[in-house]
Every structure is written in structure tokens, then in C-alpha cells.
Amino acid sequence: MTSECLLDVSDLTVYYGHVQALKGVSFQVYPSEIVTLLGANGAGKSTTLRAVSGLVRPRGGDIRWQGVSLRDMPAHRIVSAGISHAPEGRKVFATLTVEENLTLGAYARRGDPAGIAKSRERVFNLFPRLAERRRQLAGTLSGGEQQMLAIGRALMSSPRLLLLDEPSLGLAPMLVKAIFRTVREINEQGVAILLVEQNVRAALRLAHRAYVLETGRIVLSGSAEQLRRDPRVRRAYLGER
């Protein structure tokens, strides 16, 4: 990569109580690329995203965003710095409308009503279904619509890096294709994406580069094409012999 590194994670260690979840994880994300983290359940993928967005505190290593350490930065300041997180399980506010959920996603930009309105229209252009349901309670949306809302809410802070945790989880195949098409469109608009996704085949089709985690360590890395051809990945994650 010739451009300057956007996100540089180095030797990251995270514990939950006495259990070590990440054991020296290092990786980079560059501007306008899609990087995917692959691995089995419990490998540390979601923990990595939560550490980057400030939801868990690392015990060791560093997370640098455009050269500035995020290790001791609170989560709301990380959002303001340009990183947004669409978590696993969507976590929409069920008793608020679609529009109210989106407005909450822009809380870090409270003094910029024109910019918020522009971001809202951008989300509605990406997800026309949300525009149709803008006054509907989020809890009454389908699973696919809630996923659209979770991604849209994350985009309301106008991030340079979007963290996506399992966007296809529990969705029908046609909806998965639609969500992934929109993720590509978001990336083509200049947003870098760090993706955690159990659908390894789809993730490797979408991503530029990939890292494989096993029990808190990165064991493989390379271009998406390299990992797609790697016999270890094909055996372990693509069901091929």
C-alpha cells in the first residue's frame, strides 16, 4: 500500500476478566479499502471491533487512527474522530422511529443541522426502504430493515471508517446480496470498511484484504484473492477439500 495508513492496530491484547480474548493482534486499514476479519466464533473478531471503537479497553498494544492513539480515548470521541460501529445484532432503539434512530447516530454532529440533513438523505438514497418507513418504530421493522437502519445510523456521523459486525446474520440470501451491494457502494463513496462476517465466501468477494483470527491471534493475512485460493481457508471456511 502506498497511501498513508488510516488505522494501525499493533500487538493488541484484550482481557475479559482473567480470560485473554486477543493475544497480540496487529493489522492495518488503508483509505477507501475493505478489510475483512475472518475466523470461527470466539476467535476475537467482534472483540477487535469493540476495542477499535472504544467499547472495550485493551490491556496492551496500541490502536492508532491517522497517527493518533485511541487507547485512552472515550468512545464518543472516537466517533467524532471518524470511526463508526454498526454492532452485531443491530441494536436499534426499538421504541424510537427510523428517523429518531438516525438522528441519534448523528449526536456527535449536533451543531451541524445542514450536514445531518445531508447525511440523512444519503442514508435514504442508499436504503430507500428506510425512507418509506421513516416514521415507523424500529422494533416493528423486519430483520433486514433493522440491519439497514443499523448501518444507516452508523453512517450518520459521516465516518471515514465503518466497522461492520456480522451484517448478514440471520438474513435471507437475497437480502444478504442487497446489503453487500450497498456496503460496496458505501466503500465506493470513499468510506473504508472493517468487516466481520461469518459468510466467508461473500466477505472474500467483497473485501480487498483479509486477516484470519484463531483463538485471539492472526494466523493468516493477504489479499482477498490470495486467501480465497489458500487451501487452509478453503478447507476450514469454504467447506472444500
Summarize the structure.
This protein is 38% helix and 25% strand.
- Classify the fold: give the CATH topology of the largest domain: Rossmann fold
Gyration radius from CA atoms, angstroms? 17 Å
Question: What is the overall number of helices?
Answer: 10
The level of helicity is 25-40%
Order of helices and strands: EEEHEEHEHHHHEHEHEEHH
Please report the distance between the alpha carbons of the first and last residues. Answer: 33 Å
Judged by helices, strands and strand pairing, the structural class is alpha/beta
Mean pLDDT, to the nearest integer, reads 93
Largest sheet: 6 strands, mixed
What is the count of distinct domains?
2
Low-pLDDT residue intervals, each spanning 5 or more residues = none
Principal-axes shape call: globular
Strand content: 25-35%
What is the CATH level 1 assignment of the largest domain? Alpha Beta
**What's the CATH superfamily of the largest domain, by name?**
P-loop containing nucleotide triphosphate hydrolases
Strand order of the largest sheet: 6-7-8-3-9-10
How would you describe the overall organization of this protein?
The protein is α/β, with parallel strands linked by helices and 241 residues long. The chain folds into 2 domains: 141 residues, P-loop containing nucleotide triphosphate hydrolases (Rossmann fold, 3-Layer(aba) Sandwich), CATH 3.40.50.300; 70 residues, no CATH class. It has a 6-stranded mixed β-sheet, sandwiched between helices. A hairpin with a 2-residue loop joins strand 1 and strand 2. Helix 3 packs parallel to helix 6. The radius of gyration is 17 Å and the shape is globular. The model has no long low-confidence stretch (mean pLDDT 93).
